[in-house]
Each structure stands twice: as structure tokens, then as C-alpha cells.
Amino acid sequence: MGKVSSIHLLLFLFICPQINASDHASWEYPKARDNGIMPEEHWGENCDQGRRQSPVDLNIDASVHGIFPAFSFVDYDEPIKDAAILNTGHSLQVNAHPSQKMLVMGGGLPGTYVFDQFHFHWGSEHTINGRREAVELHIVHHESRFNSLGEAAKTNRGIAVLGILFHVAAEPNPYIEQILIASEVVKEHVGRNQSITRELRLEDFLPKDKSSYFRYEGSLTTPGCFESVVWTVWTNTLPISIEQVERFKTLKSEKGQELTHNFRSVKPLGSRALVYVSGENEKSNGMKKSHHIMVSLAYMIFHISLLNVFN
């Protein structure tokens, strides 16, 4: 790996996913109680005092109906250039070369967003109607008018995160398997990165049906919990085997302990709008458009017929 790529990966260690380098060594996830319930974490400052924090419970009864245009993805189907996996001490993170500009827009997003990195949480951070899934993937982007994720984090809606949930299934996920194989070299060494030799594409980590999702505005889920994130969390989940979930838990933290979980507790939604976009809404909207077209065609045919009668 070239010098530029190595420098880029080191920079990511300090700015992603927690953004603020001063927080990197000063926080950890609380240990589970004997009953398995996770206690509230106390990371201070904005993490404790903010009113637009993430994650939240994505409850359809608390949501409002939304219809947005389809998402547009640029180069999500291209191999990630110089993909490398990094043990941040809090997660497994995959970085790309900074020269590669993979973009997402549409889907009701307020701008065009540039891919920065993706990382995993086990179990899921967001819950849907109170249910937690096994793993959650966060694909992190910054708004295109900013030069970096750190700069975008200081601005409202400067960051867009795509959240994908994984349910436990009988068969392993082949794309997750590539991540886990590469992680063997870094899992016991915080700050170490390893090139991923097999091709990875962002589209492989997205649900095929992307028409149903929740949208709300919140924060990063790690210190300093900047409230600058436009969240998209799809309701369609991807499979992962229980054996793969257990392998995530062998990642070592800065204290040399296995990171058995790395999810933040859900926060109050408060007065924020939670928008639910349903695939059925999209189909219904399409049916309405088709109906209008058919009515217009019928009217045109009828009008032409009248002209023929009177001419």
C-alpha cells in the first residue's frame, strides 16, 4: 500500500467513526448487567446533554408517512479502491482511498454525500418497534461541499449515514465473511489496518429492495455525538450467521478485552419527525401515476373519435 494510502488510513483512525481525536482513548461501552440488559452510557458533554441523539427506536406508530424519490448511487457498484480494514478499538471499520468518490443522493436526502467509511455494531443500535437485530452496518458519508467528515460534522445535515440491519440466518453472509477473514490480522491490535485483497462493493452491503426505510435527523452514536446526521435505516434486513456474529465479538478493545458488544442505548425521539417511507407507498404512487396516464390516453382517444365523427 502506498504512502498516501497509509497516511489516509491513519487519519481515519483519529477522525472516524468518533470524529474527535481527543475522545478516542477516553470512552468505552458499559458492561452488560447480570441479566444481560445494557445500562445507559455516560460519555459527557453533547452525548449526555444533546436533544437530537442517536440511535432511536424506529416505531412505525410514532412515524409520519413519507414519499421520496428513489435513491441514486454513484460507483456503489465499483470495487472499493485500496480497501483496508481497521481495528479502531471500538469497531471494525473499512476505509477507501480518498481519491475514490462514491456518492449517494436522492431518497429525500438534502444534498449529495460522499462516502467516507463503513463500520459495524453488534448488536444493532437502532431498534425497529422495540426489536434489536444482531448487527448494524453504518455507511458514513459527508456532504459534498465539505472537504472532510470532521468539517461536515460541525454543520447541520453535514453527514448522511445509511444503516443496514442484519438478522441471524442459517447460512453465513459471503460479503461479511470477507470482512471477518481480513479482520483476523487486526482484531487483537488497535490501530492496525490490513488490506482487503478480495473486491468489495458497497452495493453488496445494501438490501436489494431499498424502497422501505425510516428517515430522521440525529447524531453520531459515538463521542462527540455531533448532531449533524441525516439517518436512513432500511427495514429490509440482510442475513448473517450466528457464528459470524460471535466472530465480531472477538475484536479486542484498547484494554485488550474482547468487545462483546458495541452498541449505544436508544435515545428519546422527542419532538423530532420520524418519517417512514414504505415500498407500498411507492407502488401506490406508481399506480396513481399509471391511472392518470390511462385516463389521459382514454380522454385523448375519445376526443379524437369525436373529431372524426364531426368531420
Note the topology.
Layout: H1 3-15, H2 45-49, E1 57-58, E2 64-66, E3 71-74, E4 84-87, E5 92-95, E6 103-106, E7 113-122, E8 127-128, E9 131-132, E10 135-143, H3 149-152, E11 159-169, H4 174-183, E12 193-195, E13 213-218, E14 229-234, E15 238-241, H5 242-248, E16 275-277, H6 279-310
Parallel strand pairs: 1-8, 2-16, 11-14, 11-15
Antiparallel strand pairs: 3-6, 4-5, 4-12, 5-7, 6-7, 7-10, 8-9, 10-11, 13-14, 13-16
Give a summary of the structure in a few sentences.
This protein is of the alpha+beta class and 311 residues long. Helix content is 23%, strand content 25%.
Largest sheet: 13 strands, mixed
C-alpha-based Rg, rounded: 22 Å
* Count of all domains: 2
Low-confidence stretches: 1-18, 20-25, 283-311
Total strand segments = 16
Which term fits the overall shape?
Answer: globular
Query: Which class do the helix and strand fractions yield?
Result: alpha+beta
Give the name of the CATH architecture of the largest domain.
Roll
Keywords: Signal
Organism: Culicoides sonorensis
Family: Belongs to the alpha-carbonic anhydrase family.
InterPro entries: CA_dom (IPR001148), CA_dom_sf (IPR036398), Carbonic_anhydrase_a-class (IPR023561)
